[in-house]
Amino acid sequence: MAYPPNQPDPNEPNRRLYNPYQDLQVPIQNLYKLPTSPEFLFQEEAIAQRRSWGENLTYYTGISYLAGAVAGAGIGFVEGVKASEPGDTLKLRINRVLNGSGHTGRKFGNRAGVIGLMYAGLESGMVSLRDTDDVINSVAAGLGTGVLYKAAAGVRSAAVAGAIGGVVVGVAVTGKQMLRRYVPI
């Protein structure tokens, strides 16, 4: 039995009907049935509430690079403004600010991107190794990232950086859980 246009089919409750020609006043009876929930190729993907390792790698690296580049550009902006001299023209002052922002932003962005890349790799490795997704994986990945990032500077520097990485990730994970619990979104 065919249902009239723009009327939902009662046999398919998870579908909404869409007619791309409804605003054009074109009499067409072909309706497209679009899913309202995410579609997964395998049932295991629907159960997991986590990004894949590749998505994690891309996400953490990109977010870290962007945050580092923005912070570095801000620092470079301030350095460029401070470096201007009383006799400089407006063009020269703008050039100093742009050069300082670009140089420092690129430097900070690259460093933060590498840290994000190492963190994502270590966290994904911990999840696959332990076969669970919990706070321990995140904190251990932060600790390992700090150690790896400063390993060439010596044992003491690596230990301090590892402790800082573990504490920062622990605070971030705790803050995220507090936000979820106490802030209604």
What order do the helices and strands come in, and which of them pair?
Blueprint: E1 15-18, E2 32-35, H1 43-47, H2 53-83, H3 90-130, H4 135-149, H5 155-182
Antiparallel strand pairs: 1-2
Explain what this protein looks like in three dimensions.
- A two-stranded antiparallel sheet has the order 1-2.
- Among the domains are: 57-130; 134-185.
- It is mainly alpha-helical and 185 residues long.
- The protein is built from 5 helices and 2 strands, in the order E-E-H-H-H-H-H.
- It is found in: Membrane.
- Pfam families: Tim17.
Shape: flat
Class by alpha and beta content = mainly alpha
Figure out the total of helices: 5
N- and C-termini, Cα separation: 43 Å
Q: H/E order of the elements?
A: EEHHHHH
Brief sketch in words of this structure:
By secondary structure, the protein is mainly alpha-helical. It is 65% helix and 4% strand.
Features of the shown structure:
flat, mainly alpha, 5 helices, two-stranded antiparallel sheet, 185 residues
